[in-house]
Design brief:
Length: 75
């Protein structure tokens, strides 16, 4: 099952990126690039969602077949 999770990504003064999410409690991921940070966040989110479902917590809504995706293009 797929889930859509909103990530908040910010660049820290140290030059690395930090991702958190209000939708998945405990999700914190850090990487050298935005892509690396997103990949780490995906792995962390998957583990947290699996742990929460095993504990009987309310699951996230499944991903929709139509959704908006923020695309950032550097010029």
């Amino acid at each position: 099952m797929e889930h859509v999770i909103q990530l908040h990504i910010e660049k820290l003064p140290e030059g690395v990126y930090l991702a958190t999410s209000d939708e998945v409690q405990g999700l914190v991921a850090q990487g050298r690039t935005i892509q690396e940070t997103i990949e780490i966040a995906r792995d962390v989110a998957k583990k947290l969602i699996e742990a929460q479902s095993d504990a009987g917590a309310s699951p996230l809504a499944p991903a929709q077949e139509v959704f908006d995706y923020p695309l950032i293009v550097a010029t």
